[in-house]
Each structure stands twice: as structure tokens, then as C-alpha cells.
Amino acid sequence: MLLKIFLTLFEVLGLLRMAQTQASEITMKSWGTVDGKEVKMFTLKNQNHQEVDILNYGATIRAVRTPDKKGKVADVVLGFDNIEGYLKADNPYFGATVGRVANRIGKGRFLLDGVEINVSKNIPPNTLHGGFKGWNSKIWESTIRGDELVMTLLSEDGDEGFPGAVIATTVFKLDNNGTLSIVMKACVTKATPINLTNHSYFNLAGHATNASELYKHSIMLNADRWTVTDADSIPTGEIRTVANSIMDLQTRKILGDVINKVPGGGYDYNFCLVNGEKNRDSKLVAKVDHPASGRTLEVHTNQPGVQFYTANFLPEANASGISGKEGKSYFKHGAFCLETQNYPDAVNHANFPNSIVRPGDLYYHTVEYKFGVQPFVEPLY
């Protein structure tokens, strides 16, 4: 009993010390209900006029507000103004924490220790982003721990057909350097595949500026190979060099110069980070900038791959777009995603990095999104 009291006091004192030195302020407000459970929106604020809104529905990043080189603040991720938007069928996983297995599983099946496992086929005949009701559409338990927002989810044995119960945590933190860090962990009761990702859609010119500004972004990807896919975007197992191809983004490219030359109408491929499958330390993923605003984004992760996606499946510009924040509409090529991950369909390819987590193992995934700005230079006229 005394030990329990001591530990409790130790934890409280630790939290008080943390609160005194914390880099960001976190506030919360109610945002409606889903299935009788309260939806909460948390806002993380640092000392440099940057803010991030996060929902406990899907552990979702709803907004990132960050200044340009003149100090004008804009929201640079796509999303919705209310919970009803996130519940609609046309929500393409805006900002969500995706699991238990992000990306695709071919034919919705795999062998695990000699036993065939069949999971939900929500894009028949395949599985995408965890099935019909993946972790993106569940209410996560949430708590503020100093300058960190901690979200926890229990996924029960048999959830969408996957074996074993999983306890997952996602921890968000915004520091005064403009880095939004996300740490995703999971432990299991039975062997099961785990591959989490964050599915934020970025446009550094502002969430509603669509393709006209996205095409002006430049990007560098620290990836020397990519996983070849079939017509259904399922990996064939081939890992191909990016050299001498439209997939080579190792040197900066302007998106407008390359995006429409990519098979399929834009990028939607897993890129293999340099030494990513051999080195699980945090490494550079990408550098992106929007010259007119001066806003920049730098991404780091400990994962072996990243799905670079340019919102190819959002509606065409001559159609009705997805109705997003502030009454604005989102269209094809209106944003980009950098989804750090294991390789898609890794469970079905022996030459891909292992994706099976077993009892006693810890799934551990870090990603840092650093939002910055290039200095403003007064024109010489």
C-alpha cells in the first residue's frame, strides 16, 4: 500500500515538473458523440503561433495551423468542420491513425504459422486500411500527460478477422521548433500483423488551395527503391530501383513537372527509404516546400517505407468535390500524404520487412512532421 502511494506521489510530482517545462499547451473541448461516446477535440499550441487539432475519433489530426514567411497563419491539412464529415463514406481517411494494418493486404488473406487467416475485404477482393471499421473510425481513450496527448485503443481478438487482441497507444507532442511528433506502440495477445500510419493530407499553401498550388510544391524523397504493384495496387513482390524513372525523387522535383507523368494519374506508391529495412533508427523521409508561402515540411521516421500519395482519387475538378473545412471543396491532386509504414502486403512477401508482432514483442513506430518557414526576403525594387 505504501509503495502504491509512493508511486502515485512520484507520478504526480513528475507530471508537475513536466507541466512547468512543457513546450506546448493542450486544451480540450467536446465535439459531439459517435455511438453514444463523446468525441473530443484537443488543441496543442506552442510558443511560435503553431497549433494542431487532434480528435479522439480515429486519433485524427484535424488541423495544423502554421505561419508563412510573412507571419500569416494557414491550416495546411485537409479535414472537416464537424464530426459528421468524418462519418461520411467519402472521407478518405483524412488525418486518421490507420490500423491494425495500414495499406493493402492482397486477397484479404495470409498464412500465419501455417494457418490461413481471412480478414475483411472492404475493397473486394482485397483489404485496405484495416477493413470496414478500422482504427480510424473508433473512439480512442485519451488523456493529457504534461505536454503530450496520449490516446489508447483496445482492438479485440477477431477485430475485422485479425487474430489476437491488441492494445495500441498513439502519443502526440508539439514542440517549440514546430515538430509534431507521433509515437505509435502496440502489444498483442496472439501473433498478428501490425502496420500503423498517420494519413494526413498536406497542402502547405493552405488546405483549400487544391492542385493549382500543390503543383508548385517541391519534394525530395530519401528513397532509392519502390515496391512495384499490380492494377489493384497490390505489391507483386518486386522491389525496383528508382534510377532513371519518374519514381526518382532523390533530388528535388516540382510536383507539377512530374505528377501527371506517373502511371495511374499521380503518385500512390510505397517508397523504400535508404537503408530503411536495415536501420530502425529515425531517418529522413522527405523534404517539401511551397516557395510562395515559404512553408516547409520535413519528415523523419524509424519505419522502412513511406506511401507517397498525391490525392489521385479525390474528385476531378469538374465534379462536385469533397466538402471540407470552411465550406471549401477538395479535388484531385489537392494534397499529398507521406504515410510512414512497413511495406504494403508485407505479410504475403517473404522479401519484405517482417510485419508480424508476437506476444512479448513491442510494435514501435515514430514519425516527426517538422513545420518550418523559409525566411522572408524583401524584393530589391
Question: What is shown here, in short?
Answer:
The chain has 381 residues and is mainly beta. 9% of the residues lie in helices and 40% in strands. It has helices at residues 2-21, 83-87, 210-214, 255-258; strands spanning 25-34, 37-45, 51-55, 60-67, 73-75, 97-98, 104-105, 109-112, 115-118, 127-128, 141-145, 148-155, 166-174, 179-188, 192-193, 197-198, 218-221, 223-229, 235-241, 253-254, 268-273, 283-290, 295-301, 305-309, 322-323, 329-330, 337-341, 356-357, 363-373.
Using brief descriptors, characterize the structure shown.
29 strands; about 375 residues; 5-stranded antiparallel β-sheet; about 10% helix; mainly beta; globular; 9-stranded antiparallel β-sheet
- Uncertain segments are 1-21
- Quaternary class: single chain
Cross-sheet strand order for the largest sheet: 11-12-13-14-29-23-22-17-20
Q: Which range best describes the helical content: under 10%, 10-25%, 25-40%, 40-55%, 55-70% or over 70%?
A: under 10%
Main structural class: mainly beta
Question: Biggest sheet, open or closed, and with what strands and sense?
Answer: 9 strands, antiparallel
Q: What is the overall pLDDT average?
A: 93
Q: What would you call the shape?
A: globular
Rg on CA atoms, Å: 21 Å
Tell me the number of helical segments per DSSP (H or I, 4 or more residues long). Answer: 4
Our measurement of the CA-to-CA distance between the termini, rounded to an integer number of angstroms, reads 74 Å
Report the portion of residues in β strands.
35-45%
Please tally the β strands and state the result.
Answer: 29
